[in-house]
Amino acid sequence: MIWIHALLGWVTLLAAFAVCVWAWLGASGRTGARLPSRVLIGLIDLQILVGIITWVLHRMWNLHPILGIAAAVVAHVWLKDRRSRTTQAWAATAVFILLGITAWIGR
């Protein structure tokens, strides 16, 4: 189960990077441009679910799950938000950074 969580984590991190670039290029204001954000949030939610299952099975505890949940919270708030593109791009960057730190801590 740990390898699934690790693999999914790297896929989620790459998706977060792509959405971050997407947001900074200003594509988040176009029609249908919210799909990449929704895919990222789905990956983050799946990652949290697999992480909880992994934690229950292996009882591993450190800062990793707290940062993962923080990234999920920021991502969900960001998707529901109707703020400017610049603010959304900063939120996407925050999610990317949180996921990157989480991946590094989880090694």
Task: Compose a concise summary of this entry.
This protein is mainly α. Helix content is 79%, strand content 0%. The radius of gyration is 14 Å and the shape is elongated.
What structural class do helix, strand and pairing data support? mainly alpha
Number of helices: 4
* Total separate domains: 1
- SSE string, helix = H, strand = E? HHHH
Number of strands: 0
The low-confidence parts are none
Q: Mind summarizing the main beta sheet?
A: none
Helix percent band: over 70%
- How many angstroms separate the termini? 15 Å
Rg over C-alpha atoms, rounded to the nearest angstrom: 14 Å
Q: Can you give the mean pLDDT? A: 77
Overall 3D geometry?
Answer: elongated
Fraction in beta strands: under 5%
How is the secondary structure organized here?
Blueprint: H1 2-24, H2 35-58, H3 64-80, H4 85-105
Helix pairs in contact: 1-2, 1-4, 2-3, 3-4
Protein model, in words:
With 107 residues, the protein is mostly helical. The chain has one domain (2-105). 79% of the residues lie in helices and 0% in strands. The chain is built from 4 helices and no strands. Helix 1 (2-24) packs antiparallel against helix 4 (85-105). The two termini are 15 Å apart.
